[in-house]
UniProtKB/TrEMBL annotation:
UniProt record, GO biological process: DNA synthesis involved in DNA repair; double-strand break repair
Entry-linked CDD domains: ABC_ATPase (cd00267)
Record InterPro entries: ATPase_AAA_core, P-loop_NTPase, RecF-like
Classification via PANTHER family: ATP-DEPENDENT ENDONUCLEASE, OLD FAMILY-RELATED (PTHR32182:SF22), DNA REPLICATION AND REPAIR PROTEIN RECF (PTHR32182)
Pfam families cross-referenced by the UniProt entry: AAA_21
SUPFAM superfamilies for the chain: P-loop containing nucleoside triphosphate hydrolases (SSF52540)
A GO term, aspect molecular function: ATP binding
Protein name per its UniProtKB record: Predicted ATPase
Lineage summary: Bacteria, Pseudomonadati, Pseudomonadota, Betaproteobacteria, Nitrosomonadales
Residues in ATPase AAA-type core domain copies: 32-317
Species for this entry: Nitrosomonas ureae
């Protein structure tokens, strides 16, 4: 299935959300979209919006749980609920749309003041699909007998995940065992990495072999994964050194190598979601690994839409201006801007994109 058929996120409108006062009908590429900006510019806020969506469309998590553990309404509204009483969002993908307004309640929770899933039907014209108002969780995950267009929106957004492979501490979920059957979708923190790879080894051996070979390019000592049940219904990420028959545990990998394994698995999987969101994938990677990561991102963008945040000038060096979104902090609000290739054409004859960013020619610097 092509990217066009999968209906990537075409445009997004956000107002009143965290540091984003207004982002109007912002276009996203079907392929690769990379956000750069200084610390505190608002890159993470944009990424966190997709994290919130994921909770909204997960019946086991939900909006209220997400809001209550992250500062309640004031943490989600531009300059707090006294200044901004509600936030609005409008997502457009293919013929489908998802619109919602979250309003602050007196107890500092958020509730749906509006929710709808408009559909531009080719046969019968536009359909609003109004979901009502006043509910505290998305009506789409509570209702039964959804229409085909409503179900499509639910399935699509439910598949979106923010991937954040920062935690490689000894107690990180990726270090421990996981259920063998938990292998359908790679978790956002790679907690089920071993089960996901184990399933891929059986069902998609060519993709599995490509992941192993890609890891060897960064870690020449790496021999192969050893994926099996370590106890009843449990598996763990074990591996062999290419020069030894000894088995090793994930904590015996460097932080950078383990993160690269997670990234390679995510980007080389056979059936990715239509949109993947990745937060600072370059963290802890060697410069050579960052260049290889760029190749993985380009390859994956042929099969899925990618939204990536970064602070790596080396990663920017491997991109085109059309793929870069600069996030600036202006008068206390985050402003997202795409680059004009024509403006940068002469500059790029002498400098790379990363160098131009470091020189503050692109913006996105403190």
């Amino acid at each position: 299935m092509s990217i066009t058929e999968r209906h990537s996120l075409n445009r997004i409108t956000l107002s009143g959300y965290k540091s984003i006062r207004e982002l109007k009908s912002f276009r996203l590429n079907n392929g690769l979209n990379v956000l750069i900006g200084a610390n505190g510019s608002g890159k993470s806020n944009f990424i966190r919006f997709f994290e919130m969506l994921g909770h909204m469309f997960d019946p086991n998590k939900g909006l209220q749980n997400y809001v209550s553990t992250r500062g309640r309404a004031d943490a989600f509204l531009f300059r707090g609920m006294k200044i901004t009483p509600e936030l609005d969002a409008h997502l457009e993908f293919g013929r489908n749309e998802y619109r919602f307004t979250l309003r602050a309640a007196d107890d500092r929770s958020l509730f749906f003041a509006h929710e709808s899933t408009p559909f531009s039907g080719p046969k019968y014209g536009p359909i609003i699909n109004d979901q009502g108002s006043g509910h505290v969780e998305s009506a789409l995950i509570r209702r039964k007998n959804l229409s085909a267009s409503e179900q499509w929106v639910v399935n699509t957004i439910h598949d979106w995940r923010v991937y954040h492979f920062h935690d490689t501490s000894p107690s990180a979920p990726v270090m421990g065992p996981c259920n063998v059957v938990d292998n359908d979708v790679l978790h956002g923190n790679a907690a089920n990495l071993s089960a996901f790879l184990m399933n891929m080894e059986k069902s998609h051996p060519n993709h599995f072999a490509q992941i192993e070979e890609t890891v060897r390019q960064v870690a020449p000592f790496f021999g192969a994964f050893v994926l099996k049940e370590i106890s009843n219904g449990q598996t763990q990420l074990l591996w062999k050194d290419r020069y030894s028959d000894l088995l090793y545990y994930p904590h015996q990998l460097s932080d950078g190598t383990l993160r690269y394994i997670c990234l390679a698995t995510l980007l080389l999987q056979p059936n990715p979601a239509s949109t993947l969101i990745i937060d600072e994938p370059e963290l802890g990677l060697h410069p050579y690994a960052i260049k290889l990561l760029a190749s993985l991102l380009h390859e994956a963008s042929q099969h899925a839409q990618l939204i990536v945040s970064t602070q790596s000038s080396l990663l920017l060096d491997e991109l085109t201006p059309e793929q870069v979104i600069v996030v600036n902090q202006k008068d206390g609000e985050s402003v997202l801007e795409r680059q004009d290739p024509n403006r940068l054409k002469d500059w790029l004859e002498e400098y790379t994109l990363g160098q131009l960013w470091e020189k503050n020619e692109l913006g996105g610097q403190p």
